[in-house]
Design brief:
This protein has 815 residues and is mainly β. Helix content is 4%, strand content 51%. Strand 60 and strand 61 form a beta hairpin.
Length: 815
């Protein structure tokens, strides 16, 4: 099943000085799914209401802190038949005026500028950059500032006629779009005038030239307040049947990020998204350097010809310079190209079967090409950014219904003299059904709705594709007279605190107060967290079957091993999946698990499956099980001398004797490493004291007593960590509670976490269409049609361990 929802790409500014030695890509995008809203179904009611607003769901619906505008909302009901009544579905968004006096609107949780609007239609463009005077850039003589959609700015001809002015050249994909002379303190504007309105305020790009200065053998322009909108205009008409398309979008499939190559009535073609760098992520390569990429791709710099600028040069540019490179896959040359600075390179193949090489596989922007006099690079270097790569082996899904995304059946209405846009269902007699414990996604894969198997709780979830670091804003509280109370609960703020949907339980709380009514010895630090107001609590609860005790700890699920008034011992849930999450195992297809565990399966003549649990290459447990049985592996986690704590369990769903494969589901695993929380502990969480209450059933965290007279200082518009940087607080027109999602942390977990590969309602997975690229690595076996892709293949050492164990087992059986 798909993990749908809002797909956003997030990346912090970072830079690799020189990645010519990496043979493994370490910054691949990952998918993070999170709940944005929870509603519990009362027994006395026939339906539950979801009324979502920007304040309640800040990472799904857009809010503008600069104008305090919250004009986006989403409403629907779920009845007791697991249906969303068509009459209850309503999405509303309205035009408002930004702080720059421009008309803006939110559309599917993203900011847009309104190019034109009336009672019959709206023309809107995505707001790509919206920075203020504090966001500055330095552009040297002849240097390039890369912008989205292939645009780039170059500065040259400094101090013409001894005046404080400079020429700016604007290009898109290397083609000149505008050339203009700007003086200090002037505003640069570029308008594509796409809708032929001749309105200069509908500019695509704007920035201020703050100052010019000369020194260190170069001239530099300092600009700020960049604002840029997309050159692609979306037109929404009144009373129009509206359908969404995933074509060219990024989705999550089987817990992995994919790029949709093609989407039409015949099906969907998608390719695994391998790299999705932002324009801020830059790679510097010298002549002879090789940048190794996933799927065997590599870029090698052959020659570099920079544009040479002399000391104190004020002459106009005659070119950007260029560099030549070789593109290979698995050691075979597939392209050889020379590109100029500011240009965009694309390597294309035929991925959708139309007979044309019109689908990009690899693309990047070329930035500056530096000479040997720059920094410590004796041979100079070239910068590339916005690097994106998808797999040439595509996934073809012919039955779109398997994705459970409602793409059609919407109607748009423009109301309030062209100021308000409403989206409803076009057929009010046709409800949207979904199965219990299943998911349905809506509107361009924007959000997902799920009802648990007991039908006593429902959730709205969203997903983001994280390329570096993503700031997940889980709560927003607006300040009034310099004061705000922040009171978070698992049910109201599930993006920050953990809510257990399967068990309809959520028992984490986080309370704190923020104010500016105090004397601050710090400059420009007007806000603080009052130390007496801070308290975090969490409580133990039973699972629905009463077989286990669980607890949430700092936003993550744990199982309780033992607890009393002085100590609580917990172990983190690593895998906790449902029946439709299935895995195909065999001797040649083991399953990699966290903490160095592997699971190996084989079948015998009696239709019995033999399972071996391997830890760091050594077998620690083995057992047999038949179809319908439950396999369990236990360890001694509470030091009582008995292996009575369940670490790994799963159901044996089916056996394929002819192929020696076994299908399992309901996989569940906890960490073998326990976390011991002691009453009165002051070292586990720095500056905090942990107290155990209610006979060991409640954990409370407060600031230390010796820290109580020290306020938690909040720098304006800066993240301040709390609870050992588990969560962050930021004051920026409002109080935001933030959780950081990092690819470095997530990838380690994603590498260990098992992916959903087979949906129980399918007869088989969609076919993987292999692109006919000549390869030198002929050792990778092809995946048979009924075996799911992506299953890790053991290395040679693990393979030898497996063979030795089988030989020993056979000898024991003979004896």
């Amino acid at each position: 099943m798909i993990v749908p929802g809002q797909i956003a790409i997030a990346s912090n500014q970072s830079e690799d000085d020189n990645i010519n030695v990496n043979t493994k890509w370490t910054n691949s995008p990952v998918v993070e799914e999170f709940y944005v809203a929870i509603e519990e179904m009362p027994a006395s009611s026939d339906f539950v209401n979801f009324n979502l607003t920007s304040t309640k769901c800040p990472d799904l619906l857009f809010y503008d802190l600069t104008t305090d505008c919250r004009f986006e909302s989403l409403n629907f009901n779920i009845n007791n038949e697991c249906q969303i009544p068509a009459t209850s579905f309503e999405y509303i968004t309205s035009i408002y005026t930004g702080n720059d006096n421009m008309s803006r609107i939110s559309w599917l949780g993203q900011p847009y500028c309104v190019i034109d609007n009336n009672k019959e239609n709206m023309h809107i463009a995505r707001l790509l950059i919206n920075e203020d005077m504090d966001d500055t850039y330095l552009i040297g003589d002849g240097r390039i500032l890369t912008l989205p959609e292939g645009f780039a700015i170059t500065a040259f001809n400094f101090f013409k006629y001894d005046d404080y002015e400079v020429d700016f050249l604007l290009t898109q994909n290397g083609n000149e779009k505008d050339r203009r002379t700007i003086k200090e303190d002037e505003l640069y504007k570029y308008n594509l005038d796409i809708n032929s309105s001749n309105q200069i305020e509908n500019y695509t790009l704007r920035f201020y030239l703050e100052t010019l200065f000369s020194g260190m053998c170069t001239n530099v322009a300092k600009i700020n307040s960049i604002r840029m909108t997309s050159s692609n205009i979306q037109v929404i008409n009144n009373n129009e049947s509206f359908s969404f398309s995933l074509n060219g979008s990024k989705i999550s499939w089987l817990g992995q990020p994919y790029y949709v190559v093609d989407h039409d009535s015949t099906g969907l073609t998608a390719a695994r998204l391998l790299i999705d760098d932002s324009r801020d992520y830059c790679h510097r390569l010298k002549k002879g350097d090789t940048l190794f990429l996933p799927d065997g791709f590599a870029i090698t710099v052959l020659e570099r010809h920079p544009h040479i600028i002399g000391c104190g040069s004020t002459t106009g540019r005659s070119g950007y310079g260029n560099f030549s490179f070789l593109l290979t896959q698995y050691g075979n040359e597939i392209d050889n190209r020379t590109v100029n600075g500011s240009e965009c390179y694309e390597y294309r193949l035929d991925l959708n079967g139309n007979g044309k090489n019109d689908n990009w596989v690899l693309k990047f922007n070329v930035g500056d090409i530096f000479s040997s006099t720059f920094e410590s690079y004796s041979d100079g270097f070239v910068e590339i950014n916005s690097l994106k790569l998808i797999s040439p082996d595509v996934l073809k899904i012919e039955n779109i219904n398997e994705m459970n995304i409602v793409m059609e059946g919407y109607e748009t209405n423009i109301e309030n003299d062209g100021m308000t846009l409403t989206v409803v269902r076009d057929n009010i007699t046709k409800n949207v059904p979904f199965s219990r414990d299943g998911t349905v996604s809506f509107m361009d894969n924007w959000f997902t709705v799920r009802v648990n198997s007991a039908s006593d709780a429902a959730a709205v979830s969203s997903a983001v594709i994280v390329s570096d670091t993503y700031e997940l804003v889980g709560a927003v509280e607006y300040l009034y007279s310099g004061y705000a109370d922040v009171n978070l609960t698992s049910k109201d703020n599930p993006a920050i605190l953990y809510y257990d949907l399967d068990n309809a339980q959520g028992h984490e709380t986080l309370n704190l107060s923020i104010d500016n009514n105090y004397y601050s010895p710090y400059k420009d630090v007007p806000y603080r967290i009052s130390p007496y107001s801070f308290v975090y609590t969490t409580r133990i609860y039973p699972t629905r079957d009463h077989n286990d005790l669980k607890i949430a700890w700092l936003g993550e699920p744990y199982i309780v091993i033992e607890n009393d008034s002085s100590t609580v011992v917990i172990n983190k849930f690593l895998i906790d999946e449902r029946p439709d999450d299935c895995y195909q195992l065999s001797m040649d297809n083991p399953l990699d698990l966290p903490y160095g565990f592997n699971l190996i399966a084989s079948t015998n003549s009696s239709n019995i499956a033999c399972f071996s649990v391997i830890k760091d290459g050594l077998e620690v447990y083995n057992d047999t099980a038949g179809e319908g049985d439950i396999f369990q592996y236990k360890e001694d986690l509470n030091s009582n001398g008995i292996n009575d704590n369940l670490v790994l369990s799963f159901n044996v769903k089916s056996l394929n004797k002819s192929k020696g494969s076994v299908m399992i589901n309901n996989l569940r695993m906890i960490s073998p490493e326990s976390l011991m929380i002691n009453d009165g502990d002051v070292s586990m969480l720095s500056t905090y004291t942990i107290n155990i209450k209610d006979a060991g059933s409640t954990i409370e965290v407060r600031l230390k007593e010796d820290y109580i007279h020290s306020d938690v200082i909040l720098n304006k518009d800066k993240l301040t960590g709390i609870l050992n940087n588990t969560f962050f607080i930021r004051v920026n027109g409002a109080v935001e509670v933030v959780k950081l999602l990092n690819t470095t942390d997530t990838q380690q977990y994603e590498h260990e976490l098992i992916k959903r590969r087979v949906n129980s309602i399918k007869t088989k997975m969609p076919d993987i269409i292999k692109n006919e690229t000549s390869r030198t690595d002929k050792t990778t076996p092809d995946v048979t049609p009924d075996v799911t892709p992506d299953v890790p293949v053991p290395d040679f050492g693990l393979f030898m361990c497996i063979m030795i164990l089988l030989i020993v087992r056979k000898k024991i059986q003979k004896k």
